[in-house]
Amino acid sequence: MVSTTSDIHSTASGIPQLPFDNQAYEDLVKICGDFSIDAQAATALAFEARLQQFWLADEPVLYIGLAGTSLSKRIQQYHSTLIGARSPHSGGWWLKALRALPSLFVHYAPADGDVHAIEAKMIRGFADRLPGELKTGLYDPYRVAPFANVHVPGLGDKHHGFRNHKLRKGPNSPAI
């Protein structure tokens, strides 16, 4: 879990406004050139505005995910993946659009059993505990999850309107 607080029991350390990083937008466009939002050429302002529509003010939990490898390896993979790149690990990529990324905290616990089911249960639990007015205020009120969880288990990807926001797969993909 990625959070704005070092205290896993605290709910008081959320960030009221999206701490958008304009440089992240510039980096994304440099890598993915034709990035668009709702079939319109993206701008930094439009990207920030759309992400803001998924931001849960004052919510300290920003991402829930499983490592599938050692935690240190997953964190290294995440930090070495440029915004817009698909690998080595692009899950939670919206976090890379935040100025606050260096000050976020990673909380973890080992899990036995079906880790995908556990991850899904944690994301559902997050969504279930949010007040209804927060959910209905989101750009996609049907696929509710922490801010940076773009994929919602059992429901698919959040409807966000982004296109060409990741490098294309295949032999003609530009190298980074």
Descriptive terms for the model:
single chain; 176 residues; alpha+beta; three-stranded antiparallel sheet; 28% helix; globular
Protein architecture, described:
The chain has one domain. A hairpin with a 3-residue loop joins β6 and β7. Helix content is 28%, strand content 10%. By secondary structure, it is an alpha+beta fold. It is built from five helices and eight strands; from the N terminus they run βαββαβαβααβββ. The longest helix has 15 residues. The relative contact order is 0.21. The strands form three sheets. It has a three-stranded antiparallel sheet with strand order 4-1-5, with no helix packed on it.
Describe the structure in brief.
This protein is an alpha+beta fold and about 180 residues long. The protein is about 30% helix and about 10% strand.
Layout of SSEs?
Elements: E1 2-3, H1 22-32, E2 36-37, E3 40-41, H2 44-52, E4 61-63, H3 71-80, E5 105-106, H4 115-129, H5 132-136, E6 151-152, E7 156-157, E8 162-163
Helix content: 25-40%
Report the uncertain regions: 171-176
Please state roughly what percent of the residues sit in beta strands, choosing from under 5%, 5-15%, 15-25%, 25-35%, 35-45% or over 45%: 5-15%
* Cα-to-Cα separation, first versus last residue: 28 Å
Described by strand count, sense and barrel closure, the largest sheet is:
3 strands, antiparallel
Report the radius of gyration as a whole number of Å: 16 Å
Overall mean confidence score, pLDDT: 89
What is the count of β-strands?
Answer: 8
What's the tally of helices? 5
When the domains are counted, the total is 1
Order of helices and strands: EHEEHEHEHHEEE
**Looking across the biggest beta sheet, what order are the strands in?**
4-1-5
- Oligomeric state, counting identical vs distinct chains: single chain
Overall geometry: globular
